[in-house]
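Sequence only, no structure available. Ideas?
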Amino acid sequence: MVEEALNGEGRTDADLGDIGVIGVIGAGSMGAGIAQVALLAGHRVYLHDVSPDQVEHAVTSIEARLRAQVDKGRLTHTEADAAVERLGVVPAIEDLPECELVVEAVREDLALKCEIFAELARHQTPTTILATNTSSLDVDEIADRVQDPERVLGLHFFNPAPVMELVEVVRGSWTSDIYLDFARSLVRRWGKSPVTCASTPGFIVNRVARPFYGEAQRMLEEGVADAATLDACLRGAGFRMGPLELTDLIGQDVNLAVGMSVWQQTDRDPRYAPTRLQQDLVASGRLGRKTGQGIYTYASGDPAGRAQVVGATPDESRVAELVGGPVTTDPVARTLAMLVNEAVDLVHRGEASAQDVDTAMVLGTAYPKGPLAWGRELGHDVVRHTLEELDAAYPGGRYRPSLALETMP
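Reply:
I predicted one. Tokens follow.
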């Protein structure tokens, strides 16, 4: 137990099997997914949500996914039954039993999260780890409402939690190393790959990835090429999806909300300024696949109901002209330079290690390689010169090179 670690008794990964009870606050898709992960690791899990209907749906969904794993031969009937048996529901936070860890996974509302953590602190023991699954909010602001803020940290899972390997373990200013190490070990036991970062706006993935979306949107606004052609350029560089089609998949509203959070938390740094294009899309209700229209227009035509893009074909001759051409109209050069710059800057500030940044971007966004590895391959001087050229063409600070690029080989 965590208390043993605090008393100076050493722990190993093998000891984690007796951690016991896990609490999950929020029964949406993320909360249900985290609960499923903990159940399959052998824990007793208690789930709470203010909506009884949401809890009922979460329990049904978890059971259905576990049965599907049995059908695929990944679980036995006995294992699935045991996992379902370990799942409990509580009507209120105060009804949670004593937990070793409670993970909050409600919507991205700082006031709501602070209220939940204050209540958890009143009802759980002083050594219960309290973790938030926030994707971009400040862990310190959440910990500020807790009497023992050293046990507050971030555990940012990626959706869907049972499938995605990455977990960002976020240390706040007050987070104790004991709790941080314990959380990392627990996440590994759950079969995940933890990376550690400070509570910087957007953490690793949502901070470093901002230029991937923003550069394509700006180039579309500038009329450099149509959306399908810009996406084709980035797919040709090894990205699984182009940035414009990816924001349609994520949801323009969701992507914009994260971008706005990072921008506001960085005192409206021009690097993260939202585009008028995306703001207009959200204002007009063109949110992407879920509404049938975003950057692209979609039709649900196949038997599985998957959204199909209507009438968007890349201009392959234009792709050949753009990639390797002038920096200002090369989607790949602009995007890679910005990604490398963002990653280098994050490491330079001491907010995460180079290895964790590259691991996060490969596992969390399926990039073909980490941005720091990409920077070494391209050459930091090439990246710096690209940014300087962009900064001259588009003054204002968005393309300012990180000071670290000047000293890197």
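Residues 4-17 have pLDDT under 50 and may be disordered.
Hope that gets you unstuck.
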